[in-house]
Amino acid sequence: MLLLICGATARAEDPLSGPASPPVWQAYSAERAVDPLQWKPLPPALVGDRPATLELHMAVPEGFHLYKDKIWVEVLDAGSLAVGAVELPPGRRVETSDPERPHREVFDEDVVLRLPIQASPATPLGLATMVLSVHHQGCYDGTCLPPQRRHLRVLIPVRPNELANELAIEPANVVDDESVYQEHPPTDR
Fold it and tell me: Which CATH superfamily is domain 34-160+169-181 in?
């Protein structure tokens, strides 16, 4: 109760760096409280029923790291596309100060998630829409951001086999341009 009266803010301690430092948004961006960790979808063009891979890129800013075990992707709407399990690259193994988790994998450089996709016979030609919810947690200089969730709508060109050599990749669209604070992430991740 004393913390609330004094106006102090609670911050998560980063087990890799030790005690928490000033809030991330103050250390990284004095202008606004925004998550500097953003996913950029790069959709493939689907040709007939050939499998392809949707890539989600994140440029991890200097001084930040992401916990591999805090990244996951939910497919909210795949339409008539078949979707496989997300593929995460190996992270860098680090020692932590957390006795319950002495080792973790982190990404402190750019990371690419891969999501296998494929058009089904029911997928119409043109643009297919997929809606994803991408979850992550990042830390900066000893302070962790709250877990984040981004909703992305990705437009994926679908072409018949005859047009395999005439592909044009349209840009992906972000449905929800703001990060959404998630109080209680699932415990099995």
Answer: Thiol:disulfide interchange protein DsbD, N-terminal domain (2.60.40.1250)
